[in-house]
Amino acid sequence: MQELADADSRFIEVDGITVHYKQYGRGEPNFILLHGTLATTYTWREVVEPLAQIGTVIAYDRPAFGLSSRPMPGEWSGKSPYGHEAQVDMLIALMDALGIERAVLIGNSLGGGIAALAAQRDPGRVAGLVLAAPVQSSHGVPRLLALLFSTPQMRRLGPLYLRKNVLDFGMKVYGDSWHDPSRIDPGDMDEYGKIFQMEDWDRGLWELIVAARPFESLARYETIAVPTLVITGDDDQVLGTEENARLADRILGAQLVVIPECGHVPQEECPDAFVQVITQFVVGFDRWTFSDVGGQGTYAYPDSG
Fold it and tell me: Is cis: bond before 29, omega within 30 of 0?
């Protein structure tokens, strides 16, 4: 783990997991960045410094990815730390460990889904929500299949299958994530390849698959009541631009920005536009009002006038 770390890498213990993160800037607002599946903190490389000009930026590796540790069955009690809800628990615990009371959550793909779940469950901790092509449905295995995957036999065979196939699959998905894959730097592919040098990367990824549930059984986007920005490229071939756009209609007062000539990872392919719309979004926060009644924080969406 340490030998693969960068000069600006940091590590912290959160809920029994050694979490790899990076921190930039200072002051408020606080931004916490959540990457998608098979990605790492590296996905934010083009936007962390610009965002750090207006606040504090935290990017971390979610469970099963990057340089964060991968607990194995028997090393935790209760629910799996790889499940969607447990990842929300870890996000809030990470905020506590870093002394962050409230933050703007910026999530891409499944990271956006985890950020949305956090906003649903604990709106008082979420100053704003930026959903960049977020997962809305699927992205999980049915419960009966998950039980099969969790058997001792499949916990041996599953990682072997991933070791043989996931690299090619991941590289294909990454290429599909760009509007113009010819612009992908080969060096970026090498950086993402570091994930496959981590001990137990395959077993950790299998545990993530075992723990995942169909996302629509958890996500209630209509209940989100924090300032929300939905960002999509106009050529998202992974989740679909139209589906991303429809999500904005499901969230009260959500803003929608469609970035032209951009795919599923706008923070990588269109970083200047990505930072610009987030900066404009944050400036508008003063139009929202926040109240904490009975210990349950809620936001009021401003009138259109």
Answer: yes
Phi, psi of 210 (to 5 degrees): -60, -40
Extract the runs of DSSP E, i.e. beta strands, from 52-202: 56-60, 103-108, 126-132
Name the helix (H) or strand (E) containing 265.
none
Q: Which residue has the higher pLDDT, 31 or 288?
A: 31
Measure the CA–CA gap between 201 and 190, rounded to whole angstroms: 16
Cα angle 239, 130, 87 (rounded to 5 degrees) comes to 80
pLDDT band at 161 (very low <50, low <70, confident <90, very high): confident
Q: Which of 66, 107, 67 is nearest to 84 (CA)?
A: 107
Q: Which residues pair with 291 in a beta bridge?
A: 298
Q: Which long-range contacts (CB under 8 A, 24 or more apart) does 37-41 make?
A: 37/65, 37/109, 37/110, 37/139, 38/65, 38/166, 38/170, 38/173, 38/174, 38/192, 38/195, 39/65, 39/108, 39/109, 39/111, 39/192, 39/265, 40/65, 40/66, 40/67, 40/192, 40/194, 40/195, 41/66
Tens-place pLDDT, residues 24-64: 999 999 999 999 998 999 999 999 999 999 999 999 999 99
Q: Is the pLDDT of residue 106 over 70?
A: yes
Q: Which residues, listed in sequence order, are joined to residue 299 by a DSSP beta bridge?
A: 290
Helix (H, G, I), strand (E, B) or coil at 239: coil
Question: Cα Rg for the chain, rounded, in angstroms?
Answer: 18
Q: pLDDT tens-digit profile of 195-244?
A: 888 889 999 999 998 888 777 667 788 889 899 999 999 999 988 899 88
- The amino acid sitting at 123 is P
CATH architecture of the domain with range 2-300? 3-Layer(aba) Sandwich (3.40)
Secondary structure (3-state) at 122: coil
Domain ranges of the chain: 2-300
Cα distances from 39 to residues 32, 126, 183, 195, in angstroms, run 15, 23, 18, 8
